[in-house]
Write a structure and sequence with these properties.
about 120 residues, Glutaredoxin, five-stranded mixed sheet, 4 helices, 5 strands, about 40% helix, disulfide bond
Length: about 120
């Protein structure tokens, strides 16, 4: 099972995110962003905890400006959650792990309820 969040890029976006059948969490970040560095270990922990349930990806906004622009990511870190290729939730700024878990659990409950 994957532990750390995998990298997403403009080139892999459609395959990794848009065509995914499971819930996808994408961390939009940059190397120079302090709050992004604070969130990074949380994102990796979530990737481990939700392995098999949630696909977790990280997208470097400096290297992939097209995707960041498409979703109007103006501040980082921004965490976007996708279901069936649609952005369904957005978190901006560094947040405690429990907030991420609450959103993930809520989205997973909705997802399984709809199945």
């Amino acid at each position: 099972m994957a532990g750390d969040a995998l990298k997403a890029t403009d080139a892999t976006w459609d395959e990794d995110v848009m065509k995914a059948s499971e819930l996808v969490m994408v961390d939009f970040w940059a190397v120079w962003c302090g709050p992004c560095q604070m969130v990074a270990p949380i994102v990796d922990e979530l990737a481990t905890e939700y392995a098999g349930k949630v696909k977790v990806r990280k997208l470097n906004t400096d290297e992939n400006p097209e995707i960041a622009g498409r979703y109007q990511v103006m501040s980082i870190p921004t965490i976007l959650f996708f279901k069936n290729g649609q952005a369904v939730e957005r978190l901006v700024g560094a947040r405690p792990k429990r907030q991420f878990k609450e959103i993930i659990d809520s989205l997973l409950a909705q997802h399984s309820g709809a199945a």
